[in-house]
Amino acid sequence: MAEEFYRIKRLPPYVFAEVNRLKAEYRAGGMDIIDFGMGNPDMDTPSHIVEKLVETVRKPRTHRYSASKGIPGLRRAQAGYYARRFGVKLNPETEVIATLGSKEGLANLAMAITAPGDVMLVPNPSYPIHPYGFMIAGGTLRHVPTLHDGRFDPEQYLRSLERAVVHSVPKPVALVVSFPSNPTAQICDLDFYKDLIAFAKKHHLWVLSDLAYAEIYFDGNPPPSILQVEGAKDVAVEFTSLSKTFSMPGWRMGFAVGNDRLISALTRIKSYLDYGAFTPVQVAAAAALNGPQDCIAEIRDIYRSRRDVLVESMGRAGWDIPPPPATMFAWAPLPEAFREIGSMAFSKILLREAEVAVAPGIGFGEYGEGYVRIGLVENEHRIRQAARNVKRMIARAPEILAQEEAEATEVA
Fold it and tell me: Which of 163, 230, 251, 380 has the fewest CB atoms within 10 Å of its CB?
């Protein structure tokens, strides 16, 4: 009875747990931790959305069980958003389902389509649910590196996918793609999606696209949807979320849209597992999609301003961080002086010496080593404060590293 459960055994150790433990310990000891570790939006949800929730929750009939696939008005609102934003026509009855955030939708679709031993192509580094949703479902993972010298190269990535398919036994069933990317903040264009859909059809693959950061972009054109590609709905579904777009993370409202067979499979699984989000939350989500959209630009501008302050202030502190073109994250190479120790050790030192928390890149997959993810979830004053702390830490780098080496030798 002491043996670990099968699915739990398959999951790797949670890399972020150690940083989170230290963060709690240092805070309990009185440290003022500036926390860039978790992508938890700190801005208020726009007032018209909150007011719609309050209005609806006062109606007793809305307190009953809801619909697991989403109330009709919400599914129509999501279809309307896709029509306006991407020029993509969706049938709200067969091609749209509401999910409890995009994470739940991804995990339950993995459960719906994965047979034991099925091979899935997943990006690396990646948001953890992309690979581990399939692992929990009993699938086998083939990790595909997404970056070259810290940047996304579409041609190289497609070559890596081709090699993965050729060398996989059995042949893969599906692939995951996520742009703008969490954690790397990289983006792609519609030409890449056209090539990806052609690749998927050639190799008979389902495509799961995570577009959670569709509205958090800073430079150039808005990120496209994979469903803009002609024929994409033959093989693809796409996940979006209101968490970042409308600063509604705790509301847990997302969507899957696209291929009707995949949407039907997800609907069937969800019908056994939940009754959908609380109806007032769904009504308020529809109000978000149908209502004033200027709040999206306001939220985006706050993230852009934080990004600029982060890049500029950390650069002056001695830490060069490439400006992310999208998302609420920066994907930062370790400062030169700390490059040899790895992202986990650096994250611990940064927490202890500078009172700054980040997410170690290794937590997003082996190809994330050498980087950390920085969430734009603190205000500009706190970002500048963090940069001052980092500057002092970098100035003491030789002393800090010598101390680390001495302690490691003593333990050995």
Answer: 230
- The SS3 assignment for 383 reads helix
Long-range contacts, 279-282 (Cβ 8 Å, 24+): 279/56, 279/62, 279/63, 279/64, 279/66, 279/71, 280/53, 280/56, 280/57, 280/62, 281/53, 281/251, 281/252, 281/253, 282/66, 282/70, 282/71, 282/73, 282/74, 282/98, 282/253
Using the predicted structure, report yes or no on whether residue 393 has a pLDDT greater than 80.
yes
**Domains in the chain with CATH codes:** 6-44+295-411 (3.90.1150.10), 47-290 (3.40.640.10)
Give the H or E element holding residue 104. helix 101-113
Structure tokens at 404: 């680390």
Let me know: does 227 contact 190? Beta carbons within 8 Å. Answer: no
Would the pTM count as exceeding 0.85? yes
Cβ-contact 41, 328 below 8 angstroms: yes
Residue 408 has pLDDT above 90, yes or no: no
| Bridge partners (DSSP) listed for residue 359 | 373
